[in-house]
């Protein structure tokens, strides 16, 4: 057993560090997955930075919908950066050791960013609902002040609601095992190593997930039900198609995000022993959405593509100007 034990019996934790073993069942060749994961991470950071720069520089994109997209980009980069550097360090440098405080901090950050992503999806659904169902009142309802208040509310909500998960995990008694069959510190993966009962952590995580993401999903479904009802009342098929096309990117991302959340939750609760599929899904769920979100919006949003072209043309123009010899 590779557990590192503290000498004092009075210490709250006997185990002083955890060992992240990586992907279950493929430890010998898991390093080959580092290249696609690194490319996904770089594309996520690069694409989201490009979206932020484009939104900031293009006056045509100074709209609430794109403000929420910019906030989503920041959250995506935070989520990807919470896990990917450590995963790549495990695969490349065999840096498997993680201290208990670092592990609990990672649990907190993952829950916080995933909850914020869910909250931003809800804000974007509300934005589309007002834009389609109450277009005349849209400028007076969805203002910069509302966007700021909604963002602050999401940050506070998820910062507070995510606290019980790592706090309960830190209160468990880790007395012997310290090898986590995972690439990251997941709540259930860590607490199942405890010598005492880990089920309160599982129940707490499930209740908080239903309270936060369950309520978000319910309100998103309600918003799109009202949008669909409003669109079906339109006399023009072209107007209905145009209205729904503004929601298509959002719907694709929501479907992917919540489907994977449900699958991960079910598989983790059903499994008593860590297996490759749920662990790999957990990793991919934290890196694919940050890579996927910018691509979906870039491919399906004409205004954003035009903004990209303006940014690239502007940068090329500046480069050409600098390269010209002075007379």
TrEMBL record:
Tell me where it mainly resides. Answer: membrane
- GO MF annotations, alphabetized: G protein-coupled receptor activity; olfactory receptor activity
- Lipid bilayer topology: Multi-pass membrane protein
Which cellular component, as a GO term, is one annotated location? plasma membrane
Write the record's keywords in alphabetical order, separated by commas. Answer: G-protein coupled receptor, Membrane, Olfaction, Receptor, Sensory transduction, Transducer, Transmembrane, Transmembrane helix
Where does it localize?
Membrane
Domain named G-protein coupled receptors family 1 profile: residues: 47-297
Q: Which domain of life, per UniProt?
A: Eukaryota
What does the record give as the function of this protein? Putative odorant or sperm cell receptor.
The name under which this protein is listed is G-protein coupled receptors family 1 profile domain-containing protein
Q: Which organism is it from?
A: Panthera tigris altaica
